[in-house]
Amino acid sequence: GLEEGAKNQFSTFSNFITTINQKKEGIGNRSSPTQLVIPNIKNGRDLPPLCLDVRQKQRMSMDALPQELKAPSPPEPPLPIRTKTVKDFQDDMEKSKASGDWKAVHNFYSTTFDSFLEINAAFKKDTNSPFNTIEDSGIDAKFVNVVYDALLNTPQDVQKSVLKGIINGLLQEWTGPRTKDDLRAYCILLQNPQFSNTSTYVIYAHLLRQIAALTEADHHFLVHWSKKISQKRFKQVVDRLLQFISLRLFPAKPEEFPPMVKCTWWIPSATKVLALFNAANSLISPPIISYTDFYNSTLDHIDLMEEYHNWQCYGNSHRFSFCQYPFIISIAAKKVIIQRDSEQQMISIARQSLVDKVSRRQKPDMNMLFLNVKVRRTHLVSDSLDELARKKADLKKKLKVTFVGEAGLDMGGLTKEWFLLLIRQIFHPDYGMFTYHKDSQCHWFSSFKCDNYSEFRLVGALMGLAVYNSITLDIRFPPCCYKKLLSPPIVPCDHNTLVGICGVTLDDLFQIMPELAHGLSELLSYEGNVEEDFYSTFQVFQEEFGVIKSYNLKPNGDKIPVTNQNRKEYVQLYVDFLLNKSIYKQFAAFYYGFHSVCASYALLLLRPEEVEILVCGSPELDMSALQRSTQYEGYQKTDLTIRYFWDVVLEFSLDLQKKLLHFATGSDRVPVGGMADLNFKISKSETSTNWLPVAHTCFNQLCLPPYKNKKELKQKLIIGISNAEGFGLE
């Protein structure tokens, strides 16, 4: 960063806020759109497209904005003429390094960053062109990158001159709407690497405040311009903003910053600017960086439930809450919110049951505090369906399972076994509810029509119960399923409102039926005459119980040929038919089943990918982490057999590691909390070493005989995990 002396460089900057206040006093009551001295960000304009308002009960994003927001465009003031090129600048840098004379470089930096006009004069690709569309910011990105990359390698006085210039730009008095040149300057200043240093945070905070207070139309431009930034620079800006928020929340040296009471607007401003980059990231497919790169794990250590309750009570009004910007909250933190919200609902429901019982002068029964499910193994699905249908009012109580005719208390193992057996039976191809697609290795809803869709509701309720009771399920649904499950995330009050319908694309179909999607993709790119060569209409056919049935994709579709002109419409309607319309009743039942258990405003915080992780766990395996958290029974971690075991497992391919995890736990995915949350145990099996390892998936337990050597252990383990279909139940 700014190396030695960085802390002292603010001998004049440390009074920055005081300077700004004095400046304001000097201009009296004149309006100042910069809002630098307003002590609370709430006076800036709210940004409803960028954050969530729980009271509106809907998701909002920048995608909803029109392609161009019409706003009055103020005239651009004339720019100074600056002719320095990238090569000229690089030559100056080389000469300065060789000679030790930094005068030319110092002059360039102090002039360039002295005002927003000078920033544009230096970095605008063509000073005579307005560049007033969202498509092109007009910024010479290469020149900006070269100048910033060189900045941290210049002497301290050069770096200080840049910061002084930025202060001058921020102190400029605004007499009307921001010009596109102003927005360009903000876009360039956000990429300044000096803002990684905490000694610059006072200046950085005021830059962020001005950007956060811009109009929605100006934000629209910044979002679209930001998506053109290179991946490396984009991530640097995001990381810088996340670090700023973390260090303001938990400063390593509190004396470096103004007191929190005087800068309560720092974190809201930074979070709003971060929301612009999140919106930009979501506009591109694939995104510039992963959605997980916006997580701030520091928030895992704050009072999340207070944040959640503030959001529920105040929505998007005057009180800031991180829940308004859920992209910044990690999946681990969201799981904590959902679990605690679930626990509070469980306690509330159980307490109400107890009060009702006492008010009727009946003797309380401890069983009334739980959702007690009693099933016969021979009638697993029908009994489960009956129990859950009969006990709708108890779905939000703690789940306990009993298998009829079997002794045993449910301490978690029976519940997990119930889930495993039920899911396996329901998803079996012979059962007919779901179709397994080998190419994509996932299940999808059968489009067969039937009189009763209650079993789909059961599957939805099972998924909800799994999330509610922190059980990881071995379910293979495509990402599209979870997108539909959050459409909408809160069950609508009007039962006539369609649910489970979302915008679907050919990419969604590729994840389920890649061969069909490839064929449709070929149709879109076909260069010949589509109508004559394909001879298709807007009618599709499906086989149902051996009978071929036809469906029109639009009215009179059987009479409308598919042509070069309308083939895009045909493909879109076909994809919508397959993923939405043909399975609407099945998915609607599934949707209502899930939300009958998981109805919570906390679902508004989740992305579809995060719902999948909560239900099925994460596919990212870290076997070293599993080794560190494993418990032993009958073995010590230093025993030869255990050392052989981990040597073998850590050398396994990813496929074999997944098989081992599936063998021992019933799923090849990891809970949200990581490997430690598995509570994996290796027990000594007092049997012959000729035996294969045995697993108790209900308890995440592996029973391992004391094999004599590494080769024998590896051979037996691979045989065991590769041939582990079925349960040996006694």
Content of β-strand: 5-15%
The termini sit apart by 66 Å
Major sheet size, sense and barrel closure: 4 strands, mixed
- Computed over alpha carbons, the radius of gyration is 31 Å
Number of domains: 4
Structural class: alpha/beta
Average pLDDT number: 85
Number of helical regions: 27
Helicity range: 40-55%
Low-confidence stretches: 1-49, 55-71, 726-730
Total number of β-strand segments?
10
Strand order of the largest sheet: 7-8-10-9
Shape: globular
Labels describing this entry:
4 domains; 6% strand; single chain; globular; 730 residues; two-stranded parallel sheet; Hect, E3 ligase catalytic domain fold; Hect, E3 ligase catalytic domain; HECT_dom; four-stranded mixed sheet; alpha/beta; disordered C terminus
Brief rundown of the structure:
By secondary structure, the protein is an alpha/beta fold.
Report on this structure.
The chain has 730 residues and is of the alpha/beta class. The chain has four domains: 209 residues, no CATH class; 150 residues, Hect, E3 ligase catalytic domain fold, CATH 3.90.1750.10; 99 residues, Hect, E3 ligase catalytic domain; 101 residues, 2-Layer Sandwich (Hect, E3 ligase catalytic fold). Helix content is 45%, strand content 6%. The protein contains 27 helices and ten strands. It has a four-stranded mixed β-sheet, with helices on one face. A two-stranded parallel sheet has the order 1-2. The termini are far apart. Its EC number is 2.3.2.26. E3 ubiquitin-protein ligase which accepts ubiquitin from an E2 ubiquitin-conjugating enzyme in the form of a thioester and then directly transfers the ubiquitin to targeted substrates.
